Amino acid sequence: MARIKQEREIPVVAGYDVVVCGGGPGGIIAALASAREGAKTCIIERYGFLGGMATAGLVAPISVFNYNGRRIIDGLPWEFVERLAAIGGAREEKPLGNITFSPEKYKLVAQRMLKEAGVDIYFHSYITGAEYEKDPDGNSRIRYVIIDNKNGAEAIAGRYFIDATGDSDLAAMAGVPMQPVPEQLQPASLIFMLSGVDTDALPMIRHSQQGVNYHDLMIRDLFTKLREEGTEDVPMFGGPWYCGILADGIVLVNMTRHFADMTDNRVAGEMECLLRENAHRYTELLRKYIPAFKNAELIATAPMTGIRETRRILGAHTLTGEEYLEAIDFPDSVARGCHPVDIHSANSTSQRCQFMKDAGFVPYRSLYAPSFPNLLVAGRNFSADEVASASVRVQASVMGLGQAAGTAAAIAAKGNTGVDKVNTDTLRARLLELGANLSN
Fold first, then answer.
1. Which residues pair with 301 in a beta bridge?
2. What is the pTM of this model?
3. Nearest to 158 by CA among 419, 431, 366
């Protein structure tokens, strides 16, 4: 491969106590927590709006907040839901606490809350590099994150950084070791939005009951039969799962799927083309075979493909599926999750869906890597095995990780200490004051 060498001077346009990379559910709450704790904070987002998988990916509902009759994920994440509900942008599906939401109002509430907290927002900015240095102890300390946008290349200085990119983009650029890559990553899915649907005829549209996998078994069985008989061209599918957006006749459909390493640009591009073709094909099939969809029209595909699994850091502690499913309460537990372990097959329509006995715990040590004293993660890129990750990767749980990471970064900034030196008793006490649920 031919190479060119480019040297350039990059202006340092700003400096912060805490720099949050990624404006999805985890990043939003991380930036909010950091700023409210008094840290000068910014957030960097590649799109022109916040929300990540919720708004760019159209992944709905926000799941899961409640389990066994209790609010499991609370504090700033639930405050966000309440603010969203206050403007007619959210509905809680009781008792489980899945949140049906309006993507547009989600974007609005997210930016309002961050602006109110004094967070600087860098939209349309793609993270393209990280500058870091070794200290006398051999630790890697990030000094700048490099972004590219219409202004050209810019550097943002930070004392502490939070990687909320989902794909560990910043962490990978800084040289953080990663978990071994599974032989088959979970498949990617492109959510599509249909109008003209008889939503009253779709009982699975409201995700309200504990212990239920809300996929449409009737359509699943029909499409499986059509695939096996070869009577129709039926692409690989999952679910299907539906969710509303608080508007009559409009449904988000989650059923496209295909294996792809979404950290590879060429692979990701080809995958999005394929899944977009499949979204149109599924619309045709739904209209043809399912009365509730006979008048359906495809009005949008998500701006980005939904990603279940890519890079995860090799942290100070790797949360195992056994620890998580047994609800081991660690001395440094800072977040929880209660979504089923949800592992989708990369090369078939099958899915492992294992429901929890009780909500699991995530230790603080899973949010940072040894020898990287000013970096935390807040999202599905935290240190976990495939089983634990397959539950915690969903939006409500990720918001809880963001609350923990943002609060910890602000505490570290106040004390001018490494993230690994943060007193976890102090951190947990502050999270409890914010409303987090950290006990059985």
1. 192
2. 0.97
3. 419
